[in-house]
Amino acid sequence: MRHEAAVSVLDVSYAVQQQTSPGPPEGDRMPHADGVSEDEFRAAMARLAAGVVLVTAYDPEDGPEGADVGMTATAFMSVSLDPPLVMVSVRDGSRMDELLERRPYWAASLLTENQRQTAGRFAMKGRLSDRLLFRDLPHTRGKSSDAPLVDGALATVECHTEQRIRAGDHTLVIGRVLAAGLPQAPHSGPLTYFRGRYHSLSKGGS
């Protein structure tokens, strides 16, 4: 499962995460089922439409003033109502994976169809530093997580990691929602990801 950009087995996550770490020892790896290639698996999962979020966290150890880190993701979902839990899939060895292993606070902003440029920038391999991207991104710092919350997002959630589960070449990060934010009156629909492209649910959107 899992995108430095987004994931959900085939999401932006694959595109977004820039670093990868060595996988488990050869003897611990489970072979693909007979007849199922990686390309076939990706192609099948690409047909599962998903919402797009920007996962963010603050690293107080990066430089004298700390630094914000962001990752576009499509492998994000609600897990439980009581307690309120959400989950995001993060590629092993990525900048976000390394940070969330050290720091339990993070946030997710549910992007609108008008924010596909933001999704694309934080999903790009070899992109500019996140520090520069955040300078051009209107955002507010979350009171519960200290992570950036994207202005104009459909909704935002601030989380504290409750559990990390290793799953293949990704880690499933389950977080308890500490705070949720809703805009007064969202004027656009959600940004979605389908067959390797961003889409809009608005009439005539693509």
Textual characterization of the structure:
This protein is 16% helix and 35% strand. With 206 residues, the chain is α+β, with helices and mostly antiparallel strands. It has a single domain (12-19, 46-195), classed as Pnp Oxidase, Chain A. A hairpin with a 7-residue loop joins strand 2 and strand 3 (67-73). It is globular. It starts with 11 loop residues before the first helix and ends in a 6-residue tail after the last strand.
Keywords:
5 helices; 7-stranded antiparallel beta sheet; 3-stranded antiparallel beta sheet; alpha+beta; Pnp Oxidase, Chain A; 206 residues; 35% strand; 16% helix
Helix content, binned percent: 10-25%
What is the name of the CATH topology? Answer: Pnp Oxidase, Chain A
**CATH class descriptor:** Mainly Beta
- Give the mean pLDDT: 84
Let me know the number of strands: 12
Distance between the termini: 25 Å
Number of domains: 1
Question: H/E element string?
Answer: HHEEEEEHEHHEEEEEE
Give me the secondary-structure category: alpha+beta
CATH architecture: Roll
Strand order of the largest sheet: 3-2-6-9-10-5-4
Quote the beta fraction.
Answer: 35-45%
Regions with pLDDT < 50 over 5+ consecutive residues? 1-24
Number of helices: 5
Largest sheet: 7 strands, antiparallel
Rounded to an integer in angstroms, the radius of gyration calculated over CA atoms is 16 Å
What is the approximate shape? globular
CATH superfamily: Electron Transport, Fmn-binding Protein, Chain A
